[in-house]
Design a protein that fits this description.
With 230 residues, the protein is α+β, with helices and mostly antiparallel strands. The protein is built from eight helices and seven strands, in the order αβββαβαβααββααα. The protein has a seven-stranded mixed sheet, sandwiched between helices. α1 crosses α8. The protein binds zinc ion.
């Protein structure tokens, strides 16, 4: 069971690179299927290079007994804090995908522009490390910053991070990956549309109906993205 999840997490890493969400930086995790108080995340490698041997098991304080001298992601506290505060979350993506950055540094709110990102209806907050810790390197390198970010996320699917990136969650690691890809696409489309004129976003009712329809296995797009890796 856990072996299957590890394989899925490796695919998630490679898909996020192939789809332009992560580059050398960014990471994706999955809540352990064997123990919900643990999560799986690679050591500090570029996601596209991940293999099953790179996946480590962490507790909800961001500690792992498996490091064996390998460097860990300094921002693993993002994942630890989100899994701690959100029992419903089974997958977390943290990225610096470029199209969302303008929405982290301006007053413009990221909103669902098409049905593929109806999950953005649940109020996208912008977390600012300044509010919690003043001048920092903007990285979520402590449990306290992780907890503040998780609090900003609340019950939503996406939290933006000022001048940095985003955190996207899902009911499965697959769904977190899919949402991260469509969050980036939404940001690009929204910026293009707003240059053309006044934008009509999904209504809350439309977004709810689409969200009710969507399934956490995201089978159709997942199968395609896996095939494209070959
Ligand atoms: Zn980051």
């Amino acid at each position: 069971m856990e072996d299957q999840l590890i394989e899925e997490l490796v695919l998630a890493n490679r898909i996020l690179f192939a789809q332009g969400v992560v580059d050398a930086f960014g990471h994706v995790s999955a809540r352990s299927s064997a123990d919900p108080s643990r999560f799986l995340l690679t050591w500090a490698i570029a996601p596209a290079l991940a293999t099953a041997a790179d996946v480590l098991s962490f507790d909800l304080d961001g500690n792992t007994p498996d490091a064996a001298g390998r460097e860990l992601y300094s921002e693993r506290f993002i994942h630890a804090a989100v899994y701690r505060s959100r029992p419903d979350v089974m997958g977390v993506v943290h990225s610096h995908s470029p199209s969302i950055i303008p929405f982290t540094v301006t007053e413009a709110a990221l909103r669902p522009i098409w049905h593929m990102s109806a999950f953005l209806e649940s109020s996208v907050s912008v977390f600012d490390t300044q509010d919690t810790a003043g001048d920092t390197d903007l990285l979520i390198k402590t449990p306290a910053l992780g907890a503040a970010l998780a609090s900003s996320l609340g019950e939503s699917t996406v939290a933006l991070m000022r001048g940095h990136g985003s955190v996207v969650v899902g009911r499965s690691v697959r769904e977190a990956v899919s949402r991260a890809i469509y969050t980036e696409a939404n940001a690009k489309l929204q910026a293009e549309s707003e240059r053309m004129g006044k934008v009509k976003f999904l209504t809350p009712g439309e977004a709810k109906l689409m969200n009710d329809y969507s399934r956490p296995d995201v089978r159709r797009q997942w199968d395609l993205w896996v095939r494209e890796l070959a």
